[in-house]
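Moderator note: this is an archived Q&A kept for reference. The question asked for a predicted structure of one protein chain; the sequence and the answer are reproduced below.
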Amino acid sequence: MMNGFRTYDESNAPEAARPMLEAAKKRMGFVTTLNGVMAESPELLAGYNALAEQFGKSSLSLAAKQVVLITASVENGCEYCVAAHSTLALRARVPAEVVEALRTCKPVADEALEAVRRLTRAVVAQRGWVDEAEIEAFLAAGHTRRNVLDIVLGVGMKTLSNYTNHIAHTPLDPAWQDQEWTREQAAV
């Protein structure tokens, strides 16, 4: 427990958060420490879960979704989320070289994924005030305006978790340990 924030599980969380933690445990096989920390505010946990569900349904490919999640987390310096999403990306068969490039702020060889990385980074770094040329480059790489807005959705989702982890100093789950990451690893 850091800064007084607890990491709850499905047995000791505030009552309104318990069903969400039980569902997370069924889905993941364990309650992530992120969900356990968020359970302090059942509304935050519900909001995060709702955004995650909608982002999962978005028009982006599975690989592009992982690019958004890792890139936003790197840009925000969230060590927890970079480790978690690197693990999940590798499990989803995103190539290891793509994951490594994202973790170190390097360009991705795949043109379409690189356009996702660049736009995501611009959205986070520029707080949404993305230059029109960046949008045009993204569209020229074969993406759509819907994809632009789906990236905004993913960034919003990650902003909730990134900031929660910064404030609460969320401990890294053992499941993510192999992909542990520090802000110093990014050449931002």
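Archived answer notes: Residues 145-168 form the longest helix (24 residues).
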